[in-house]
Amino acid sequence: MASDQGKIRASLKKLLEKxxxxxxxxxxxxxxxxxxxxxxxxxxxxxxxxxxxxxQISKVKSLLLDPWSHxxxxxxxxxxxxxxxxxxxxxxxxxxxxxxxxDCILLRDQWIRAKYERKEFLCVDRQEPYSxxxxxxxxxxxxxxxxxxxxxxxxxxxxxxxxxYFNKHDAKEPKAMMKISTLNATFQPTKIGxxxxxxxxxxxxxSTRNIFVYHxxxxxxxxxxxxIRAARLHYLQVAFPGxxxxxxxxxxxxxxxxxxxxxxxxxxxxxxxxxxxFTMDDRRLMYFKDPLDAxxxxxxxxxxxxxxxxxxxxxxxxxxxxxxxxGITIATPDRRFLFAxxxxxxxxxxxxxxxxxxxxxxxxxxxxxxxxxxxxP
Length: 377
Prior knowledge:
By secondary structure, the protein is of the alpha+beta class. 30% of the residues lie in helices and 25% in strands. It is built from 11 helices and 17 strands. The protein has helices at residues 2-15, 45-51, 70-78, 80-88, 105-117, 128-131, 189-192, 218-239, 245-248, 344-358, 364-374, and strands at residues 34-36, 41-43, 60-62, 134-142, 149-157, 162-166, 176-179, 184-187, 198-204, 207-214, 258-264, 274-281, 284-288, 298-301, 310-312, 326-331, 336-341. The strands form 3 sheets. A 7-stranded antiparallel sheet has the order 7-6-5-4-10-9-8. Strands 14-13-12-11-17-16-15 form a 7-stranded antiparallel sheet. A hairpin with a 4-residue loop joins β1 and β2. The protein starts with a helix and ends with a helix. The relative contact order is 0.08.
């Protein structure tokens, strides 16, 4: 029996060499070590745990530790990741976010459920919740001043070009109108403190406004996320008629390049350094007193090296940081911004994030944003 299992395990390992089987069927992570012997797919350890949430559909085993039967081996051989992909991912909307191993558990869990449990990509009618161009529902929204989460009615309307929410369920007028043209959404489970937490940002008078929401139902949150992506794609297709979908996809929603605490000093470089939460959102570097603040205390535009921007891993010789010793200087055409990091690792990570943006040439529309920052009151 032991030698029989040895042969089966060797055969399973051989199956991983077949095209498509060398990466997780669901998140793309390399070297999957688990298999669903009811779906015929090879998955990573993390996704195998999510498959257990749909145990009535998918039953998983370790390729290395669990016993496998000859019939299970034959089934895995007859299906495999590529065949399963062709079956369960037939009609994925262009805007739909297909998560990777880098994404949060909620996105990966709902992706797995959408494929195998709800079979959303076999029939377009099942995609209506996020592809209809209109979505209405209630979400728990964090209060701007008191931090309390209250139920608020949200409406996303492609026709009106806005996402809006209402402070009272029977209110006629919305509390806020967020234009789809500047809308972004990114899952922030750790920052918000709930696995279903979504951060929505938009521009109000060309300054960033944050809204933090969640819903107890994971599907509800991911449907809202993909509905926003659908609305963004349709807006961008109209705004940039010559652009290909592949050029537009990265613009639908974006994760922040980097977030975390640094210390900063004021414009005269004479004030004491104060600890602030920083968010790098593309070319906007924002700082907040608290990570869940609705508005930034300040924003800095980070342009390109060819336009006079740079990031240096030090402070000027005449400046001494108060508490944290690992300095950063952001040089712009108009002034220097001075920051300090707690560790050398943080300093290296922030410098890498800044350099990634600074080394990228500016797009024509980014010059207009830069001009606004220069003339900001």
